[in-house]
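Lay summary. Proteins are chains of building blocks that fold into shapes, and those shapes determine what they do. In this project we predict the shape from the chain. Here is one chain we studied, written as its sequence of building blocks.
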Amino acid sequence: MDNKYDILIKEFEKNIKKLLTENDVLRTERNSLQVELDRKQQELRQAHKELLELETAYNNLLSTNVLNGTTEGRQKFKQFLEEMVIEIDKSLELI
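And here is the predicted shape, written in a compact code that computers can read:
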């Protein structure tokens, strides 16, 4: 009878050790994912900041273009918009 309980206790200890090991692995993975999440959030904040700066520049340029109204001004505005779209696409890729 004693032998049966010893076997059960050893099996229980084995299962506890396995669970503790799995817990350590999961804790390490969680920490790694948290670091990655923090990095992605920082990238997102930076992309948002760049987007706001581009929007401000766009509004300034739009105001200047409306006042200027020349063909050259419209061409520069179109070029700026194309560059802005490229920058926005780059920012979105970071997300």
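What the prediction tells us: The chain has two helices and no strands.
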